[in-house]
Give the backbone structure.
Amino acid sequence: MITLPRLMLAVLLLVAGYTFVVAPQVAAGTGPSVRWETKRAEPRPTFTPGPSTGQRKTFPQAGKAFFGVFTSRGPADLTEYDGFVAAAGKQPQVMMFAQGWAVAKTFDRQPFDRITNRGMLPMLAWEPWNFRSESKQDRQRGNQPEYRLSKITGGAYDDYVKAWAAGVKSLGYPVAIRFAHEMNGYWYPWCESANGNRKGDYVAAWRHVHDLFEAAGARNVIWVWSPNVAYDGSTPLQQLYPGDDYVDWVGLSGYYGTGGLEDYQTFDQIYRKTLTSVAALTKRPVVVTEVAATDAAGRKAEWITDLLKTLPKHPEIIGFLWFESVKETDWRIAATPAASKAFAAGIAQPYFTATYTPDMVPRTVAVR
């Protein structure tokens, strides 16, 4: 129930040009919380397109790599982002946010504009499922038959995909789309080992979605194919790769501190096997699309230092995105002064001084 004083506050905020929203608290036994945001739409980015592709600068530039960030609220709430920038000492060049198909039913350009207006490349983690499913088992095991891969390929979501393709095209600037990530695992309904999917279904669904974007003329997309780092029992990557005609960047997810990786392991120990498999599969460059470290053993700062010393030794890796969020644990660099200091020192290297503007073209060939 909204009490009279809160209603008066809502009226005052509306008069001042703000939208009043009552959002439920997650914690049991608490009342609703209040959040508000400006009603004014994010200004549409304006930029002057560069010359022909052959003369335009690539992103990232040769000999450099970008760093980026993912936060749980993304551009909808920049609190975690602001904390990350303060801890890092400078702004990232890429920001990733997630949209589930069942929740983001219509295309909204504002999250993309918000990121681009801050001088970053938007990366959309586009997820064909209902992450708000009331069944915890369905969420954990990827058991959502309505989002079976064969349904995507069969056209059940064509109108939805076409609407988003038209929306992305209308932006007029680059957008990276990380579609149906970590497909070599078992925890999402688009994994071939889950949800009644079969061998070959993932590639077929990926190509189908990609082709719908192509048919719509949405050629401002950087397609990011993003498996999890390989583990015993994971689906072989060669079974899931759609082909170089359908992929621009290869993304990888891997953490120090998740299942099977609780003991201290360096970045190379976690990633090297998968990087070798990717190199045998494609010459597309690699982006570490999710990475972070636990501080359970007090070695988070040490791991961050190792990460940022190691990445320049992998020229095939053109950038990374830190998972600045609280999920299984507190992954944020802003969580402790030691982690913040280690991260800021690492990205102060000249290697991490890539610049981004919307008229750049993505680097699509790896240096090895």
About this structure: Confidence is low (pLDDT under 50) at residues 1-39. The longest strand covers residues 94-100.
